[in-house]
Design a protein that fits this description.
326 residues, alpha+beta, Phosphorylase Kinase, domain 1, Aminoglycoside 3'-phosphotransferase, Chain: A, domain 2, 2 domains, 5-stranded antiparallel beta sheet, 4-stranded mixed beta sheet, 11 helices, 17% strand, globular
């Protein structure tokens, strides 16, 4: 299979896969509730999140017996491992009825590289941060911290081990890409990379734990008293500060996008870190500045090189914040 050049091409390609008769037949075999011999009255797709190598859809199906929705995550490559890892996590105390849970993995259709998950209903924590009162925002931050602390402390140990040396090489590639896309950032990228290289954690200083890989407010749902987390494609074993940094930088960008202020959620971030420390029983600040700066580089690369049109203004804000974090 050729690699899609753009996310639009990926959406078109994967959408076509989900409309194929062979896929729908396999779906019926996998989900008995749809009825083996019952024709679909209607099937619709809603694209939720596009990437070049995967696209997530909500599939809504109507039959004579009713309707059902399922999340379909279509991958370019075989990601049976994600389904297997989610099953292990789900069965390790993060399943149905648990206060801290993940979306239920339903099946993996290997012929189509498609992961099926339950649709999670509830309120995204990002909606609370954007529309809630200050005390509601603080409460949401504490619940997000509690989920992450539990996962770091009690989640199954599985997946690849994050390697600090490899991460530094990746940061170098990212800063080089930014410089190639916009030469005006060359000096700032060089300074930031050298400072990151100087403070990077070494293998001997790391306390690895189960990692989510892309932990952010948009991936945390509140269903009553439960916190349910989605999108574990990047699961691994990593420094806990990495997941904390992802969450914090996401909130910074949320403030930048909706309030033109990178620091509008600073109090919320403080509550998040304090609650994590309380629940996890460890100091969350070790290596945190490094990972925040690294994630700022990651986001700056997207702003400068990937966004259409490019956003050098946002790229500069992120690079400046990276320098400030060290």
């Amino acid at each position: 299979m050729n690699v899609p050049v753009t996310t639009d091409e990926a959406v078109e390609r994967f959408s076509a896969v989900l409309h194929r008769e062979e896929f729908l037949a396999e779906l019926k075999r996998t989900l008995p509730s749809l009825g083996q011999d019952e024709p679909f009255r209607d099937m619709s797709l809603r694209m939720l999140k596009p990437h070049k190598n995967r696209v997530t859809f909500e599939m809504s199906i109507k039959t004579m017996g009713g309707s059902q929705s399922v999340l379909c995550k279509c991958h370019l490559d075989n990601r049976q491992d994600v389904f297997d890892a989610m099953q292990v996590i789900y069965n390790a105390g993060f399943g149905a009825g648990a206060e801290f849970a993940i979306a239920k993995p339903v099946a993996y259709l290997s012929s189509f590289n498609t992961l099926l998950e339950e649709m999670v209903h509830g309120t995204r924590s990002s909606e609370v941060f954007l529309g809630g009162k200050p005390d509601e925002q603080i409460g949401a931050a504490r619940r997000c911290a509690a989920w992450l602390a539990r996962f770091h402390n009690f989640g199954p140990q599985q997946g690849k081990t994050a390697n600090p040396e490899e991460f530094i090489l990746q940061l170098q590639r990212w800063t080089n890409m930014i410089k190639q896309c916009n030469a005006s950032f060359s000096d700032k990228c060089d300074e930031l990379f050298h400072r990151l290289e100087a403070v990077a954690p070494t293998a001997g200083t790391l306390r690895l734990c189960p990692g989510h890989g892309s932990y952010m407010a948009g991936h945390v749902f509140f269903e009553g008293s439960r916190a349910v987390v989605i999108d574990l494609d990047e699961y691994d074993m990593a420094d806990p500060a990495r997941d904390l940094a992802w969450f914090i930088v996401y909130l910074k960008r949320l403030g930048l996008k909706h309030n033109a202020n990178l620091h509008v959620f600073d109090q919320t971030v403080e509550a998040f870190l304090a609650s994590y420390s309380e629940y996890a029983g460890r100091d969350p600040t070790r290596h945190l500045g490094f990972y925040i700066a690294a994630e700022c580089v990651h986001r700056a690369r997207r702003d400068v090189c990937w966004r259409m049109p490019s956003s050098p203004e946002w790229g500069q804000v992120m690079l400046d914040e990276g320098l400030r974090s060290l």
